[in-house]
Amino acid sequence: MGLTYQMKMKIPFDMADMNGHIKLPDVILLSLQVSGMQSIELGVSDKDVLERYNLVWIITDYAIDVVRLPHFAEEITIETEALTYNRLFCYRRFTIYDEAGQEIIRMVATFVLMDRDSRKVHAVEPEIVAPYQSEFDKKLIRGPKYANLEDPTSKDYHVRFYDLDMNGHVNNSKYLDWIFEVMGSDFLTQYIPKKINLKYVKEVRPGGMIASAYELKGLESKHEIISDGEINAQAMITWQEIEGN
């Protein structure tokens, strides 16, 4: 296992939803800020990796477990650790603790390096990952198999300029926005995710439209983000009722 890194922060007003909980896409943004700070302190920031190697980190998969979502003004601790890596994939853990030190959210993200010009996956450079002190392990962490949706409900969304990051593709937290938004406010004021598996398949290009499609059976939902007739992302979510409802 690799070096761990922690940061404390309070949930700001603009990251809280109608329920008073932090929006899960913002959990991802904050978590990536923490791993970014670790990378800066270790001398392998995103800027360094881009300038030295013309490579950028992208995320291919998330596995997220939620006990509860922190609420507005609550202080949380986000801890991250680079777990293992192999020839192509790097695995990183994010754990969020409440003020009492209880684990409330855990995420494992799969990262790959991409050549910024060719947009192709690049083999892991040992000197980039060495500062994290994570172990090389040939074992792959495989996500679930995603079946195509059969009779989905769907809604279209425009891909806006500010949905894009500096790499020119849609910020990965935006996919969760689209996935959640299509569920509707009545549902989202009663339920929060308990478990999420999310797989990024193909980049969404700027300026077009995407369709966010889903099927809901009980408290299990399956999702697809589609553009130009192709699947860009797939997700499976298990939901839990918000306490007190």
Tell me what the structure shows.
InterPro entries: Acyl-ACP_TE_C (IPR049427), Acyl-ACP_thioesterase_NHD (IPR002864), FATA/B (IPR045023), HotDog_dom_sf (IPR029069). This is Acyl-[acyl-carrier-protein] thioesterase. Residues 148-241 form the Acyl-ACP thioesterase-like C-terminal domain. Belongs to the acyl-ACP thioesterase family. Keywords: Fatty acid biosynthesis, Fatty acid metabolism, Hydrolase, Lipid biosynthesis, Lipid metabolism, Transit peptide. There is one protein chain. The model has no long low-confidence stretch (mean pLDDT 95). The protein folds into 2 domains: 1-143, Hotdog Thioesterase (Thiol Ester Dehydrase, Chain A), CATH 3.10.129.10; 145-245, Hotdog Thioesterase (Thiol Ester Dehydrase, Chain A). The protein has helices at residues 24-41, 46-53, 126-129, 172-181, 185-188, and strands at 4-10, 55-66, 75-85, 90-97, 103-115, 121-122, 135-136, 153-158, 191-200, 209-217, 220-227, 230-241. Strands 1, 2, 3, 4, 5, 6, 7, 8, 9, 10, 11 and 12 form a 12-stranded mixed β-sheet that branches. Helix 1 packs antiparallel against helix 4 (172-181). 18% of the residues lie in helices and 41% in strands. A hairpin with a 5-residue loop joins strand 4 (90-97) and strand 5. The protein has 5 helices and 12 strands. The protein has 245 residues and is an alpha+beta fold. The longest helix has 18 residues, at 24-41.
